[in-house]
Amino acid sequence: MKILLIAPTAYNYYIDISETLKDMGHSVHFVPDFVPSFMNRSFRFLSLSLISFFQNRYICNVIKKLPSDFDCIFLIRGYAFNEHSIKILKDKYSDARLILYQWDPLSVSHFSSHALRYFDKCFTFDYSDSITYSVFVQKPLFFIDKYNHYVDKCDVDISFIGSNHSNRLEICSLLFDYFEKYHINMFIRINSQIFKTMFFLIKKYNLYSTALKRKWIVFSPISRLVSQSIFDRSIAVLDIHSPKQKGLSIRVIEVLSKGKKLITTNLSIKEEKFYNPNMICIIDPYNLDFDISFLKRPNEKIDMGMYRLDNWLLDVLS
């Protein structure tokens, strides 16, 4: 099958998706769903309508230049698309199947709900969107098997690696102080923009100055290889979800596929078939009542095979 893959470039997941599709015998042509040029990043902070205009103009020009013989159009997120550009895509590839996977809530990705009618299949990772829009099938994200490595001895009790959004730093600080009383060590790395950090250093001095002293904050993205190696060395991994979403982050699927324990703030995980309270602990960081024995219990195997990328793609594209 000849597939047009349109996806975000963040964290290079599109490379793994493309390679896996090729290993499955498909031909793949890749197009980014969004071009984060300096101009577009600037407009993004100034005006959503401006960024939408320039990005949609970009994607319409790309569609015109594409080959006309794809069997399947697989769109992930689709940040630069609106209903007009989706219709152009549908008209050009009238015989191809259009499949959408949203790994952001529509309220975050700003993908037009009116464009959903043009797709043959629509998937979302977000529970709220799957309830609000009946066309969506809720489907969690995937893991990539090559990043799973068995480590005999763990030297980190709980690790957290992520970007600096919402109240993540505040939650990490609360948990660090709480666990320190029980001699539980935490590895924390939060990727933050310099300007954002300087702004909050003034606004929330104690929190940010302490985080900087403890070397929790870094100013460049942490590679997937490094973060996965930290998780391999951890007894449990902390997941702090965004308040804007109810879907499970890719981190959740990756951690459980490694056979690691998960500590999460996301209540939605209880709805999943793989939910196991012996391996997954849901916390309220502002009303913490953590059972320390959770970290000492023997690990139990959770079957995550259906979320391995090749199986995940097989289901999505079937």
What does this 3D model show about the protein?
With 318 residues, the protein is an alpha/beta fold. It has 2 domains: 2-139, Rossmann fold, CATH 3.40.50; 145-307, Rossmann fold (3-Layer(aba) Sandwich). It is built from 12 helices and 12 strands. The chain has helices at residues 13-23, 38-46, 48-65, 83-92, 106-109, 127-132, 168-180, 194-203, 205-213, 224-232, 250-257, 309-317; strands at 2-7, 27-32, 72-76, 97-102, 121-124, 136-138, 156-163, 186-191, 217-218, 234-239, 261-264, 280-282. It has a 6-stranded parallel sheet with strand order 2-1-3-4-5-6. Strands 9-8-7-10-11-12 form a 6-stranded parallel sheet, sandwiched between helices. Strand 7, helix 7 and strand 8 form a beta-alpha-beta unit. Helix 2 (38-46) packs antiparallel against helix 3, helix 3 runs parallel beside helix 4 (83-92) and helix 8 (194-203) packs across helix 9 (205-213). The chain is globular. The termini are close together. The model has no long low-confidence stretch (mean pLDDT 91).
